[in-house]
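User: Okay, second chain of the day. Same drill as before: sequence in, structure tokens out.
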Amino acid sequence: MAKPWTTPPPQSLRAGEGFVLADVDTSSTPGFAGDKAYAQQALEAGRETLGELQEKLFAQSRSGGSTGNVLLVLQAMDTAGKGGIVRHVVGAVDPQGVAHHAFKAPTPDELAHDFLWRVRRELPGPGMIGVFDRSHYEDVLIGKVRRLAPPEDIEQRYADIVAFEDELVANGTTLVKVMLHISSDEQKERLADRLDRPDKHWKYNPGDLEERLVWNDYQDAYETAIRRTSTETAPWFVVPADRKWYARIAVQKLLTDALASRGLDWPVAQFDVELERTKLATS
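Assistant: Same drill. Structure tokens below.
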């Protein structure tokens, strides 16, 4: 298969200085030279590479060669496809090397601590790929839109997040922060589909309609959060998500490149291979 990317996602999807969310066409396919059928083939072809890199990361940690990990942060409006990313991209690797956590509304115990307390408890261990389905960014998104905290607290949280992520990177975490950017019209179609299909009723949340009423406020909150927290060590990648097939292949590439950037290799045996081969032959 020919290389499908004319511009790699780490370049074409990165939120740079002066980022404007409205400039991102939610139905576009930045850097990808192919259609849906081609993307599905590329996604399947990329599973083996991603799986091997994940296994190397896991193997290095188990041999004592590395304490690093990778953390994929997924943020999006409802129906944007976070679950599909988890199933079709992360689901391609060995589940023993994945730590997935979906953040919900904070419990009373969590509210009694600072907003990063519950996040620190779910950080991936050595050799793991961590996946945050929503994350610490809820506290500057919902918190801002729904005025759950004073404006000065929200402002302080941006700085706290940058410091927290700098700490993670310094301690060996490779961060991949992804916003799946869906349009209001596409979300409306997906919500309608959930209502039309009994097998999807369980995925429908009447509260999603309330969130649609403040759609523009959420877009402003996302843009501000991305501008304030997209750094050199922990950049944001904004992935157009009206086409699910594009979002999946883009996130797969982002995750694959993040793992590859760690220079992973198989750990060297801590024993005499030839001696063990001889012993095995005579056993």
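The longest helix spans residues 36-62.

User: Thanks, on to the next one.
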